């Protein structure tokens, strides 16, 4: 096991020794959440329970399997792996895809109106991640518009469902499709276990929440940090722990003592949240006496030696990678360079110049003008971001990406400069100095937006969406701030904020 401590805190002991049927560990970053889960599992295993430990993705599964070595009667799995087995999704292996977008949907349903296709794509993904088993019930509550338009959209959704379900059709299925089939079937495989431990519950969508609430396991432990909820684009349920507590009568237990961050870092996090998040109480105690927080107005090439840079977006990360490569620094990318879509940006640039690409994505469009039209009509934010990257770097982009590849090493332990987006680094501990990228939320600008918000005249839905977006950006910042167990360097915006607030 990878633990630097063995003695349980009072908070951890309260969870491990709890005899309640449903326990919720409201965790903070670096508090030994996984170690707490291991000790809880050991206790339940000694009582004769068969335990299922559900992790959020494959990368976490390998780490969890190492953690649980030596603990009897524990199965570690992702919910998608369970669903794949439970629904015999191998029947659909020729139809399975890791990428399905609004243009694919439009082509599958012969839709020429990209605005309608974009809305239908939104509804489709919302249904797949919802706690509705019946498509008709979902449509009744979520399809908006006049009667004629609603009827049209409902028929299209029903058609799409049938095409995806048909093994003989060419219409691709997503991983969330067979997960929905698993949901409809009642998550039966999970009922083979008597104890369920679910990690990263803060990232659960409504379907996954339904799985936890309605499974027939005798004992259940939910772990997660609500302030590390940063995947709203995946349909994350709002206040998932509150919903679980309401449905099950479960009890919330805090895990607030962080062994990763120090007191200065925890002071910054506490102040930001309690100042910016509408009065919600937030507490994290930093116990790592070796961690220090520094201020840095801007990054220079000399800062890239044995350090990590975290950014909000792939585009900003590309800019940092260009700077590092130009300075002759060896680069390493968390998860591998292929996860950052640099080649796609290059292909997009050539496509903008009328040069035909082998990438199947570009075969969906006649030319650059149609791609721009699709992006505007469907409101594809990810594609819009990629187009802006192409416009910013223009003809220099192919050479920049070539240089980055030449300066990239596969073994991240051998790089001078480690690079990652915050979303990709979530859950990890970084042992080298961490620099916070300049593209993370500007707290002063956010506060100014809140101050001028027209609370009386703005539509309620607009206010709700705005607050959710603000909260998520604060969460992204918090994840970035809590990755390092050594040195943390604040960017200029954070430095200015902390100085004005008298924090550092």
**Mean pLDDT, nearest integer?**
92
Class based on secondary structure composition and strand pairing:
alpha/beta
Total domain units: 3
Strand order of the largest sheet: 3-2-4-5-1-6
Shape: globular
Helical residue percent band? 40-55%
Strand share of the residues?
Answer: 5-15%
Low-confidence stretches: 1-5
| Span between termini | 36 Å
- State Rg: 24 Å
Largest sheet: 6 strands, parallel
Helix segment count?
21
Number of strands: 14
Structural key phrases:
21 helices, disordered N terminus, Rossmann fold, alpha/beta, 504 residues, single chain
Description:
It contains 21 helices and 14 strands. Helix 1 packs parallel to helix 2 and helix 14 crosses helix 16 (381-393). Residues 1-5 have low confidence and may be disordered. It has helices spanning 10-16, 33-46, 58-67, 79-86, 102-108, 114-128, 135-142, 147-165, 175-184, 206-214, 240-248, 263-276, 314-326, 342-352, 368-378, 381-393, 397-406, 422-425, 443-452, 460-481, 492-501; strands at 22-27, 51-55, 74-78, 195-198, 219-224, 251-255, 257-258, 285-286, 292-295, 307-311, 331-333, 417-421, 434-436, 487-490. The two termini are 36 Å apart. The chain is an alpha/beta fold and 504 residues long. The radius of gyration is 24 Å and the shape is globular. The longest helix is centred in the C-terminal third of the chain and has 22 residues, at 460-481. The chain folds into three domains: 10-86 and 185-258, 3-Layer(aba) Sandwich (Rossmann fold), CATH 3.40.50.300; 100-165; 292-501, no CATH class. It has a six-stranded parallel sheet, sandwiched between helices.
């Amino acid at each position: 096991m990878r633990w630097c401590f063995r003695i349980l805190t009072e908070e951890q002991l309260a969870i491990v020794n709890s005899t309640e049927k449903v326990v919720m560990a409201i965790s903070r970053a670096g508090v030994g959440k996984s170690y707490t889960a291991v000790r809880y599992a050991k206790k339940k295993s000694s009582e004769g329970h068969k335990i299922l430990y559900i992790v959020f993705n494959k990368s976490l599964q390998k780490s969890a399997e190492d953690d649980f070595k030596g603990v009897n009667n524990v199965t570690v799995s992702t919910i998608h792996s369970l669903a794949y087995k439970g629904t015999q999704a191998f029947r659909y292996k020729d139809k399975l895809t890791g990428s399905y977008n609004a243009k694919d949907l439009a082509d599958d349903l012969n839709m020429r109106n990209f605005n309608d296709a974009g809305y239908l794509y939104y509804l489709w993904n919302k249904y797949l991640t919802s706690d509705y088993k019946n498509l008709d019930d979902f449509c009744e509550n979520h399809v908006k518009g006049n009667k004629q338009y609603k009827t049209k959209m409902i028929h299209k959704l029903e058609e799409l469902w049938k095409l995806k379900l048909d093994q003989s059709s060419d219409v691709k299925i997503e991983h969330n499709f067979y997960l929905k089939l698993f949901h409809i079937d009642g998550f039966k495989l999970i009922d083979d276990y008597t104890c369920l431990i679910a990690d990263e519950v803060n990232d659960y969508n409504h379907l996954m929440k339904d799985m936890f609430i309605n499974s027939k396991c005798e004992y259940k432990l939910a772990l997660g940090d609500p302030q590390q909820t940063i995947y709203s684009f995946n349909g994350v349920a709002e206040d998932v722990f509150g919903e679980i507590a309401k449905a099950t009568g479960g009890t919330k237990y805090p895990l607030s003592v962080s062994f990763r961050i120090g007191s200065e870092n925890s002071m910054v996090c506490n102040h930001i949240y309690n100042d910016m998040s509408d009065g919600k109480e937030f507490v994290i105690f930093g116990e790592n006496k070796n961690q220090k927080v520094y201020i840095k107005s801007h990054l220079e090439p000399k800062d890239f030696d044995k350090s990590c840079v975290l950014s909000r977006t792939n585009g900003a990360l590309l800019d940092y990678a260009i700077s590092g490569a130009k300075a002759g620094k060896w680069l390493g990318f968390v998860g591998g360079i292929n996860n950052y879509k640099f080649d796609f940006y290059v292909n997009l640039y050539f496509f903008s110049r009328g040069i035909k690409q082998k990438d199947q994505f570009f075969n969906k469009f006649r030319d650059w003008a149609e791609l721009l039209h699709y992006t505007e009509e469907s409101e594809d934010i990810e594609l819009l971001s990629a187009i802006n990257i192409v416009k910013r770097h223009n003809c220099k982009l192919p050479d920049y990406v070539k240089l980055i590849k030449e300066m990239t090493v596969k073994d991240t332990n051998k790089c001078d400069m480690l690079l990652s987006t915050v979303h990709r680094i979530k859950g990890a501990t970084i042992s080298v100095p961490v620099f916070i990228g300049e593209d993370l939320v500007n707290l002063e600008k956010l506060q100014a937006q809140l101050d001028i918000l027209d609370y009386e005249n703005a539509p309620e839905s607009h206010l709700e969406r705005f607050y959710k977006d603000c909260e998520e950006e604060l969460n992204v910042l918090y994840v970035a701030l809590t990755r390092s167990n050594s040195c943390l360097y604040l960017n200029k915006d954070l430095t200015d904020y902390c100085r004005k607030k008298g924090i550092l």
